[in-house]
Amino acid sequence: MTEQTTSPRLRGTVADILAAETVQAAWNSCADGLERLGFINLLYGATRVPTWGIIGDGQDALILYRGPQAYADVYLGEELYLNSPTYQWAEHHEGFVSWADAVTQNGAIPTPEQLKIVQLNIEHDCLAGFVGSLNHIVPGMRGVIGLSPGRKMMQPQADALWAEVGKDVEVLCQLLHLRVASLPQTPQRRPLTSRQREALSWCAQGKTMQDVATIMNLSIATVEKHLRLAREALDAQTTAHAVQKATSLNLLVGAI
Protein backbone atom coordinates (compact mmCIF):
# COMPACT_ATOMS: atom_id res chain seq x y z
CA MET A 1 0.00 0.00 0.00
CA THR A 2 1.52 3.33 -1.04
CA GLU A 3 0.73 6.92 -0.20
CA GLN A 4 -0.61 7.36 -3.77
CA THR A 5 -3.07 4.46 -3.55
CA THR A 6 -4.29 5.19 -0.03
CA SER A 7 -7.54 7.14 0.23
CA PRO A 8 -6.86 10.59 1.73
CA ARG A 9 -9.41 9.97 4.49
CA LEU A 10 -7.57 6.81 5.50
CA ARG A 11 -3.99 8.02 5.67
CA GLY A 12 -3.97 8.90 9.35
CA THR A 13 -5.62 5.62 10.29
CA VAL A 14 -3.30 3.60 8.07
CA ALA A 15 -0.27 5.26 9.64
CA ASP A 16 -1.60 4.54 13.14
CA ILE A 17 -2.21 0.86 12.38
CA LEU A 18 1.24 0.45 10.86
CA ALA A 19 2.85 2.20 13.85
CA ALA A 20 0.96 0.11 16.42
CA GLU A 21 3.25 -1.95 18.65
CA THR A 22 0.51 -4.11 20.18
CA VAL A 23 -2.51 -5.94 18.82
CA GLN A 24 -4.81 -3.82 20.99
CA ALA A 25 -3.32 -0.58 19.64
CA ALA A 26 -3.75 -1.79 16.06
CA TRP A 27 -7.34 -2.77 16.80
CA ASN A 28 -8.16 0.55 18.47
CA SER A 29 -6.81 2.49 15.49
CA CYS A 30 -8.69 0.32 13.00
CA ALA A 31 -11.94 0.41 15.00
CA ASP A 32 -11.71 4.21 15.33
CA GLY A 33 -11.27 4.46 11.57
CA LEU A 34 -14.20 2.14 10.88
CA GLU A 35 -16.39 4.17 13.23
CA ARG A 36 -15.53 7.30 11.28
CA LEU A 37 -16.70 5.46 8.15
CA GLY A 38 -20.03 4.69 9.80
CA PHE A 39 -19.59 1.25 11.41
CA ILE A 40 -19.92 1.26 15.20
CA ASN A 41 -20.37 -2.43 16.04
CA LEU A 42 -17.31 -4.52 15.18
CA LEU A 43 -16.13 -8.07 15.80
CA TYR A 44 -12.80 -9.47 14.57
CA GLY A 45 -11.47 -12.98 15.04
CA ALA A 46 -8.23 -14.61 13.91
CA THR A 47 -6.21 -17.74 14.53
CA ARG A 48 -3.21 -19.63 13.20
CA VAL A 49 -4.24 -22.92 14.76
CA PRO A 50 -7.82 -23.65 13.62
CA THR A 51 -8.95 -27.14 14.56
CA TRP A 52 -12.38 -26.61 13.01
CA GLY A 53 -14.34 -23.74 11.52
CA ILE A 54 -12.79 -20.44 10.58
CA ILE A 55 -11.64 -19.67 14.13
CA GLY A 56 -11.48 -23.12 15.70
CA ASP A 57 -11.07 -23.36 19.46
CA GLY A 58 -12.02 -19.99 20.92
CA GLN A 59 -9.31 -20.46 23.55
CA ASP A 60 -6.67 -20.34 20.81
CA ALA A 61 -8.29 -17.51 18.86
CA LEU A 62 -7.74 -13.78 19.05
CA ILE A 63 -11.15 -12.13 19.38
CA LEU A 64 -11.54 -8.34 19.42
CA TYR A 65 -14.83 -6.52 19.83
CA ARG A 66 -16.27 -3.03 19.91
CA GLY A 67 -19.91 -2.52 20.76
CA PRO A 68 -22.40 -3.05 23.60
CA GLN A 69 -21.07 -5.35 26.31
CA ALA A 70 -24.52 -6.91 26.72
CA TYR A 71 -24.36 -8.02 23.09
CA ALA A 72 -20.92 -9.59 23.52
CA ASP A 73 -22.00 -11.38 26.69
CA VAL A 74 -24.55 -13.35 24.69
CA TYR A 75 -23.07 -13.54 21.19
CA LEU A 76 -19.58 -14.44 22.36
CA GLY A 77 -20.30 -15.78 25.83
CA GLU A 78 -22.79 -18.33 24.53
CA GLU A 79 -20.74 -18.91 21.34
CA LEU A 80 -23.70 -18.02 19.13
CA TYR A 81 -21.28 -16.85 16.45
CA LEU A 82 -20.48 -20.49 15.68
CA ASN A 83 -24.05 -20.84 14.37
CA SER A 84 -24.19 -17.55 12.48
CA PRO A 85 -24.77 -17.81 8.71
CA THR A 86 -22.30 -14.95 8.26
CA TYR A 87 -19.63 -16.91 10.14
CA GLN A 88 -20.42 -19.97 8.03
CA TRP A 89 -20.22 -17.88 4.85
CA ALA A 90 -16.79 -16.55 5.84
CA GLU A 91 -15.50 -20.07 6.44
CA HIS A 92 -16.02 -21.00 2.78
CA HIS A 93 -15.57 -17.71 0.92
CA GLU A 94 -13.23 -14.76 0.51
CA GLY A 95 -13.91 -11.03 0.46
CA PHE A 96 -16.87 -9.10 1.85
CA VAL A 97 -20.63 -9.55 1.58
CA SER A 98 -23.72 -8.11 3.24
CA TRP A 99 -25.44 -10.04 6.00
CA ALA A 100 -28.49 -10.40 3.78
CA ASP A 101 -26.47 -11.94 0.95
CA ALA A 102 -24.66 -14.27 3.36
CA VAL A 103 -27.99 -15.53 4.69
CA THR A 104 -29.35 -15.97 1.16
CA GLN A 105 -26.28 -17.91 0.04
CA ASN A 106 -26.47 -20.08 3.15
CA GLY A 107 -29.93 -21.12 2.03
CA ALA A 108 -30.67 -23.32 5.03
CA ILE A 109 -33.72 -23.19 7.27
CA PRO A 110 -32.83 -21.00 10.29
CA THR A 111 -31.88 -22.93 13.41
CA PRO A 112 -33.04 -21.95 16.91
CA GLU A 113 -29.57 -20.50 17.54
CA GLN A 114 -29.77 -18.39 14.39
CA LEU A 115 -33.21 -17.12 15.35
CA LYS A 116 -31.72 -16.13 18.72
CA ILE A 117 -29.03 -14.17 16.85
CA VAL A 118 -31.73 -12.34 14.87
CA GLN A 119 -33.52 -11.41 18.09
CA LEU A 120 -30.26 -10.31 19.71
CA ASN A 121 -29.48 -8.08 16.73
CA ILE A 122 -32.93 -6.51 16.89
CA GLU A 123 -32.54 -5.80 20.61
CA HIS A 124 -29.29 -3.94 19.93
CA ASP A 125 -30.42 -2.09 16.77
CA CYS A 126 -28.07 -4.12 14.54
CA LEU A 127 -30.49 -4.65 11.66
CA ALA A 128 -27.91 -4.66 8.86
CA GLY A 129 -24.23 -5.29 8.35
CA PHE A 130 -21.42 -6.92 6.46
CA VAL A 131 -19.01 -9.79 6.99
CA GLY A 132 -15.49 -10.10 5.64
CA SER A 133 -13.44 -13.27 5.20
CA LEU A 134 -9.72 -12.49 5.56
CA ASN A 135 -8.45 -16.03 5.01
CA HIS A 136 -6.59 -15.10 1.82
CA ILE A 137 -4.62 -12.18 3.28
CA VAL A 138 -1.97 -13.95 5.40
CA PRO A 139 -0.88 -17.52 4.54
CA GLY A 140 -1.64 -19.87 7.43
CA MET A 141 -3.72 -17.33 9.35
CA ARG A 142 -7.50 -17.33 9.19
CA GLY A 143 -9.63 -14.32 9.98
CA VAL A 144 -13.14 -12.91 9.89
CA ILE A 145 -14.64 -9.52 10.68
CA GLY A 146 -18.25 -8.46 11.14
CA LEU A 147 -19.39 -4.86 10.89
CA SER A 148 -22.72 -3.15 11.55
CA PRO A 149 -23.67 0.54 11.37
CA GLY A 150 -26.23 -0.06 14.11
CA ARG A 151 -28.64 2.81 14.78
CA LYS A 152 -31.53 0.71 13.36
CA MET A 153 -30.15 1.23 9.86
CA MET A 154 -31.78 -1.19 7.40
CA GLN A 155 -29.82 -3.13 4.77
CA PRO A 156 -30.73 -0.90 1.78
CA GLN A 157 -29.34 2.14 3.63
CA ALA A 158 -26.32 0.12 4.74
CA ASP A 159 -25.74 -0.93 1.13
CA ALA A 160 -25.74 2.74 0.10
CA LEU A 161 -23.18 3.47 2.82
CA TRP A 162 -21.07 0.54 1.63
CA ALA A 163 -21.16 1.82 -1.95
CA GLU A 164 -19.56 5.01 -0.66
CA VAL A 165 -17.00 3.69 1.84
CA GLY A 166 -16.81 -0.08 1.28
CA LYS A 167 -13.42 -0.04 -0.43
CA ASP A 168 -11.93 1.95 2.43
CA VAL A 169 -13.46 -0.46 4.94
CA GLU A 170 -11.87 -3.40 3.14
CA VAL A 171 -8.46 -1.69 3.15
CA LEU A 172 -8.57 -1.08 6.90
CA CYS A 173 -9.74 -4.62 7.70
CA GLN A 174 -7.08 -6.21 5.52
CA LEU A 175 -4.37 -3.95 6.92
CA LEU A 176 -5.45 -4.82 10.46
CA HIS A 177 -5.16 -8.53 9.67
CA LEU A 178 -1.69 -8.02 8.20
CA ARG A 179 -0.53 -5.99 11.20
CA VAL A 180 -1.95 -8.45 13.71
CA ALA A 181 -0.06 -11.24 11.94
CA SER A 182 3.23 -9.48 12.72
CA LEU A 183 2.53 -8.73 16.39
CA PRO A 184 2.58 -10.97 19.48
CA GLN A 185 -0.91 -12.29 20.09
CA THR A 186 -2.46 -13.27 23.41
CA PRO A 187 -5.24 -15.80 22.89
CA GLN A 188 -7.97 -16.39 25.45
CA ARG A 189 -5.83 -18.69 27.63
CA ARG A 190 -3.69 -17.28 30.41
CA PRO A 191 -0.57 -15.54 29.06
CA LEU A 192 2.89 -17.09 29.21
CA THR A 193 5.34 -15.78 31.79
CA SER A 194 8.72 -14.44 30.68
CA ARG A 195 10.43 -17.58 32.04
CA GLN A 196 8.04 -19.84 30.14
CA ARG A 197 8.63 -17.89 26.94
CA GLU A 198 12.40 -18.06 27.42
CA ALA A 199 12.38 -21.80 28.09
CA LEU A 200 10.24 -22.45 25.01
CA SER A 201 12.51 -20.23 22.91
CA TRP A 202 15.60 -22.23 23.85
CA CYS A 203 13.75 -25.47 23.11
CA ALA A 204 12.78 -24.02 19.74
CA GLN A 205 16.49 -23.58 19.02
CA GLY A 206 17.13 -27.26 19.68
CA LYS A 207 18.66 -26.96 23.14
CA THR A 208 18.49 -29.96 25.46
CA MET A 209 16.91 -29.75 28.90
CA GLN A 210 20.39 -29.61 30.43
CA ASP A 211 21.39 -26.84 28.02
CA VAL A 212 18.32 -24.79 28.90
CA ALA A 213 18.90 -25.26 32.63
CA THR A 214 22.51 -24.11 32.27
CA ILE A 215 21.65 -21.10 30.09
CA MET A 216 18.84 -19.96 32.39
CA ASN A 217 20.84 -20.78 35.55
CA LEU A 218 18.02 -22.98 36.82
CA SER A 219 17.68 -26.58 37.89
CA ILE A 220 16.35 -29.09 35.37
CA ALA A 221 13.31 -29.57 37.60
CA THR A 222 12.53 -25.86 37.48
CA VAL A 223 12.88 -25.77 33.70
CA GLU A 224 10.57 -28.76 33.45
CA LYS A 225 8.05 -26.89 35.63
CA HIS A 226 8.15 -23.83 33.36
CA LEU A 227 7.66 -26.01 30.29
CA ARG A 228 4.80 -27.93 31.90
CA LEU A 229 3.00 -24.70 32.78
CA ALA A 230 3.63 -23.40 29.26
CA ARG A 231 2.08 -26.56 27.80
CA GLU A 232 -0.95 -26.13 30.06
CA ALA A 233 -1.32 -22.45 29.15
CA LEU A 234 -1.21 -23.29 25.44
CA ASP A 235 -3.26 -26.49 25.76
CA ALA A 236 -0.39 -28.38 24.12
CA GLN A 237 0.26 -32.09 24.57
CA THR A 238 4.03 -31.88 24.10
CA THR A 239 6.73 -29.24 24.38
CA ALA A 240 7.18 -29.37 20.60
CA HIS A 241 3.48 -28.64 20.20
CA ALA A 242 3.76 -25.76 22.67
CA VAL A 243 6.70 -24.34 20.71
CA GLN A 244 4.69 -24.57 17.49
CA LYS A 245 1.69 -22.79 19.00
CA ALA A 246 3.76 -20.08 20.69
CA THR A 247 5.72 -19.48 17.50
CA SER A 248 2.59 -19.22 15.35
CA LEU A 249 1.17 -16.63 17.77
CA ASN A 250 4.43 -14.62 17.78
CA LEU A 251 4.68 -15.15 21.54
CA LEU A 252 8.40 -15.92 21.50
CA VAL A 253 9.52 -12.69 19.84
CA GLY A 254 12.16 -11.05 22.04
CA ALA A 255 12.05 -13.83 24.64
CA ILE A 256 15.82 -14.41 24.51
TrEMBL record:
The lineage of its organism: Bacteria, Pseudomonadati, Pseudomonadota, Alphaproteobacteria, Rhodobacterales. One of its GO terms (biological process) is regulation of DNA-templated transcription. Gene3D superfamilies: Transcription factor LuxR-like, autoinducer-binding domain, Winged helix-like DNA-binding domain superfamily/Winged helix DNA-binding domain. It comes from the Bacteria. This is Autoinducer binding domain-containing protein. One of its GO terms (molecular function) is DNA binding. Residues 184-250 form the HTH luxR-type domain. It comes from Sulfitobacter aestuariivivens. Keywords: DNA-binding, Transcription, Transcription regulation. Pfam families: Autoind_bind, GerE.
